[in-house]
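Format is sequence with structure; example below:
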Amino acid sequence: MIRRIFLLPAAIAAGLVAQTWKPAVSANPLPHFEKVNGKRVFFSDGVPLTVLTVETHWDELIYSRYSETMRVYNYMYPAAAAMGLNALKVPIKWSVVEPAEGVYDFSYVDHVRQMAERHHLKLVLCWFGHYASGAGTLYSNMQGDVFAPMYIIKDTARFPRAVDGEGKAHHDAASYDYPAIVERETLAFRAFMEHLRRADTNRTVLMIQVENEVAVFGAGADFTWRRIPKFWRDHSPASNRRFQEKGFKSELAYSAWSLAANWLRPVTDAGVKAYPIPFFMNFVGGSLEEGMLGGSPGEDVATYLDHIPSLSFIGVNHYPTWGDHTPAPVSVPASALRKTLDRYRVGRNIPTLTETNSDNSPLAPRFVFISVGEYGSPLFAPWALSSSCPTEGEPYVQKDGTLANGAFALREAYTAIRKGGPAIAQLGGTERAKVFLAEMPGHRFKETKDVAGVAVTVAGVNNGQAIAIRASDNEVLIVGFRCTVALRTDGPSVKVERGAWTGADWKPEGAVRAEVTNGEVRFRITEPQAARILW
């Protein structure tokens, strides 16, 4: 027997359909992580949230002209809202915040916060006192890539520089084995966080990324610090003494410990004391040599988490490439994306994509479903809105503010996940959530998975994908697009509706055309949506 069903209000009134799922709520209004049934869940304004963002650039904020150039990225805020982002990821250079020693200027911080609020966006702010994926960690040039304040850059006596394994000092790379620079950055970061505590009364800022892809020396065009041992640690006199005193044998292990314990620990301790919102870091995903991971340094997640208790997680910046650092084909299998996140299942860490492709490939829209649905990632962030990576010439946003290239596919994915709201943020990464997509982009697929005791079958075309969540005993939520969904229920009555979560409330948007055949419910989702099946 086949029945076409839409809504069954009489069955609801008669109590034949179970009470719907409600998300956990928190009395703490600040952005924070809280355990819910064993999973660490990110909360914003008291409700679970998945942060769906893209990073802005920073290099058009020009040193000595910061007040003139602070509005250069204004066009990105309405574009981000049009793309379906719920937050922007914005770098804040230390040199912008401290133009002279002990003098703080938060006008750019306030400007980006006000722009975000105007366009109904949240913010993830990235503290850039140190930037390792360029030719120098303190600065790369004297224009848009000045990260540390100029008084730090100019004074090599007070703030000694790092020395490579051949004895060469690098003017653009600080040694963190001398306390002076750590003391100055700690004061600046604390002032930055204290300002946010006072000024961000709407709780627009969700998280702080601390530094960027940390390493001792900046990366050259061939990422030499990842490949050549002489760049794996600082060989300044203070560093050499500490290396010997601590009995280290591995230079990568020493760098991880030294940067974590002697530099980032005091900085983050001061910051979280000033304003306790979540902090995270990001590493470069890659390899140094056979059997040795790459990145920041050696992607030593455990060491950083052990020595920096205020870190909520460490994310991976993953751009699939060939060995010579040229972009890989767009046909990256889903299993390869999962392997990247599997490497970050370390201790208390939550595997998270803090940077990935922002080009015209289908990688990011596929990766976000895997990341938030299977791994419970609290954040997903391609890089960047105006600069496509790793493929050049395919930005999400053009200079006139119009959307282009991969923006539309990412908007599909983000729109669907936002409709799933707190259900994905709270239950993603648990046994109650499963992701359905093709192993290779563009391929048709059909697969059946057990979703906490309910057999769900999803068939998709043209990069269609779905997340299925068994929110409660008598409820399944399907989030996705370009899919046909089938599942079996054991209830006498069935309700299928589309809608979206707004905060802690489900807002119905209408009926879903569905068929029931011998207890199997079947329906199609085309445009991005969330469909709720209750019985």
User: Anything to note?
Assistant: The first strand starts at residue 2 and ends at 5.
